[in-house]
Specification:
By secondary structure, the chain is α+β, with helices and mostly antiparallel strands. It has one domain: Hypothetical Protein Pfu-838710-001. It has an eight-stranded antiparallel β-barrel with strand order 3-8-7-6-5-9-10-12, surrounded by five helices. The chain is globular and about 50 Å long.
Length: 288
Amino acid sequence: MTPYDAIRDGMKIPFKEEILSKEEYLPYTHHTTTIEEISKILHTMQPISLEGMTEAALMSRKELKYLLYEERAKELIIHLSEWAYVLEIEGTRIGSYESVYFDTDGFTTYLHHHNGRRKRHKLRARRYVVSDLSFLEIKEKVKKNNSKKVRIQTDHLLTKLGSGVKEFISSNSPYDPDLFEAKLFNTYKRVTLVTPDFSQRITLDFDLAYERDGVCIQFPNVVIVEVKTDEQSYLACKKFMRQLHLHSTTFSKYCIGISLMYPAVKKNQFKQKLRRLMDMTQRRILVC
């Protein structure tokens, strides 16, 4: 049994095809074309710099999430293109991101999410590839749709938690940092849009991919849309998305990644989301 077979069997979802390369995965050509079309739309929009985005940091915010096909994501960008700004870094409007997620041997933070714990934390290192900036972040779920994030800059993308960051972790979470280790590597491409009044930030994540122990899988047709908004703009934002026939859902890149890449882990609460993800990719796994 290959590692990919273990993932498939662990998910208990029957695939028509087992594992496909990019050459074998026919929708990949269409995916590439759609990304090119989106890039052209983005270059018609007013850019905003990373420095200009500081007012839209929204470290404490309400969140809405959407799981879309690429074509629907392109339509959303078209709707927003006349008035939203697009983040541009060194001439790039589709940025690449790398994340390393940390957890305990028993997957404490994953299981807190899976079991519906209202107040929970997530620990990750993140690298913004274009700007080559890296951070260690702790995201705290305060209550439904509400979260806050704290972070410190690091010299590089962390894969181990050294002594220099343990005080930060202890001060901002209830966990012992000595119990945490890297569990999952995640990459994606992101488009970041912001409203002129900086009250809302919309991110669209493409090319979601996960890697563990040399096993890498990718979901090229799926886009994760996250809307970060302040309290005052939340209802108006939700209404606007509904007018576009877009309905919010729950989606954790970390939890989905763990449930995919660790077949033995408990995943009952995520099976419906996994099935939807597989349906969106025509029940095929794409090798990175």
